[in-house]
Amino acid sequence: MKYNKIFICLFGLSLMLFGCQEDWLDRQPLDQVTEAAFFKSPQDFIVYVNRFHPSTGGTYSKGDIHTDIAISNISLPERLAGEATINDGPGYSYSNIRRVNYVIEKIREWEGDFEDIKQAAGEAYYFRALYYYSLLRNFGDVQWIDKVLEMDSPELFGTRDSRSLIADKMIADLDTAEMYLTAERGDGYSRLTKWFALLLQSRIALYEGTWEKYHNGTVFGVQNANPNKYLTKAAEAAKKIMDSGLYSLYSTGDPYNDYYYLFNMRDFSNNPECMRWTKMDLSQDIDSHRKLFYLKYPTDAGLTKNLVDNYLCTDGLPIAVSDLYQGDYTIEDEILNRDPRMDQTIFNNDDILYVYEDGSTENYITLFEREFQDMTHSNPTGYNQRKQYYEYFIYHHTQFEETPTLNDRYAEVLLNYAEAKAELGTLTQADLNISINLLRARVAMPPLELDNITTDPNWQYPDLSPLINEVRRERMVELATENYRSDDLYRWAAMKYLNGRRPIGAQAHQFHHDPGLPTTDGHLDPYKTAYPNGYHFNLNRDYLWPIPESQVRLNEHLGQNPGW
């Protein structure tokens, strides 16, 4: 068939909203489900929205790489170093948004009882907000598209909408999702609930509120910014979850192990803290070995001394002023008298590496010893991640093991609430006692007291209030390795605090297999050669990724992000 030039042009421009030609080819199956055989029963809507569920969880990967608390030995943090190029960013794809818009249109056309499809409708609105949240974090201003576009739709040539409008639309979608989704707690891995919609709403509102506050007056600022509107919404959404009584922190009363074992259960359905998890099942031939594979041996990723130094001592004081701090000659010294979450996050020589069950009556227990680390191709800092590891290695011939992943938990709700209230200037001691101090109580740490915050000469954000510094410290240590840190640094406009610095590791003398890595003051300094002057994040460019050049060529009205 011969296409005329006009059709070819329109086809090319339409790719802007569908990511790539492969995404466009997905359109045909969407058209097919409009036939008489589909969307004729409530179950059809559930079947359709099931396609989006892999987005809520997935295969485990080490978190927070390329931030100030974790680095990799196999790739350099080019964005932090100001070396990212216009070809390094993510794709500007609307393919999943189009699919969600499609089912929302079918929901509006439904002539049966809405109650029968209400759950599917709630999930559709949830996923639209989720997909737009990814675009917002990557690109800031984007186009808001809430309908299925045709070949001649004027939106194909439209301009981007402001990030605040996108945030408002996402929050509205999640208000709708909250109304439609089940109010039951659920099992955490199948159907979505209103509580999970509220968690995402709290996360998005906190992101936008702090972005507008801390980027105000910069090239990334928002015209007529109203951060308090979003911060208030973040606190309200979190408080609804807190007041539901459906969730609480996991605790058996053992402050030295509960935090560690929270992440290592084989089934989170009845875990009081779990809100969303990835279920694994060998009986269904699900390849579930990767979390174990990544964590069974120390490989390629290392936690940093910046994270280590931010754990308080057991008297509730920072290491710079506490008499309990034992120094950093060895990792074991550093862990002494420190917040128990540190020992439960980082391996030391007394930790069990694995209990190997081979079908016999014997278990083989190996202690984690640093002489077993071949650091020439593995951990660049010496601080190996223990959190999310599980020492019981069940042999299944193929060496796969059921290793479910805890993706979203109630602790984030408490931290979102405390941070939003602190940023609003309305955080009270009572608020702290129902949020951050519950997290501290689980690990037997002294509570945070508003009128008794000790000055830390090494606060990461010296120009901000003591309270904001301590709220951010709590978020760092509680959520370490869970993939929050990068978003936090960007929304806080915090990269200026990293510039001119490099991440360093533990004292090099304690490693038996000397990898020959550079050191500074005796500490492993893996980026010393690559970045002799530290990071040079481009403060006027790199907080957002560039709109891909291919998309700008297709639609010149998209424009480009600052500095690109």
What's the helix and strand layout?
Layout: H1 5-14, H2 21-25, H3 27-32, H4 42-49, E1 70-72, H5 95-109, H6 118-139, H7 163-180, H8 194-214, H9 227-244, H10 258-262, E2 274-278, H11 290-296, E3 301-303, H12 305-310, H13 331-335, H14 340-343, E4 352-357, E5 363-367, E6 392-394, E7 405-409, H15 410-424, H16 429-433, H17 436-442, H18 466-479, H19 485-491, E8 519-520, E9 523-524, H20 549-554
Parallel strand pairs: 4-6
Antiparallel strand pairs: 1-3, 2-7, 4-5, 8-9
Helix pairs in contact: 4-6, 5-6, 6-7, 6-8, 7-8, 8-9, 8-15, 8-19, 9-15, 15-18
Q: What can you tell me about this protein's structure?
A:
The protein is mainly α and 564 residues long. It contains 20 helices and 9 strands. It has helices at residues 5-14, 21-25, 27-32, 42-49, 95-109, 118-139, 163-180, 194-214, 227-244, 258-262, 290-296, 305-310, 331-335, 340-343, 410-424, 429-433, 436-442, 466-479, 485-491, 549-554, and strands spanning 70-72, 274-278, 301-303, 352-357, 363-367, 392-394, 405-409, 519-520, 523-524. The strands form 4 sheets. A 3-stranded mixed β-sheet has the order 5-4-6, with no helix packed on it. A two-stranded antiparallel sheet has the order 1-3. Strand 8 and strand 9 form a beta hairpin. Mean pLDDT is 87; it is low at 1-32, 56-60, 285-290 and 395-400.
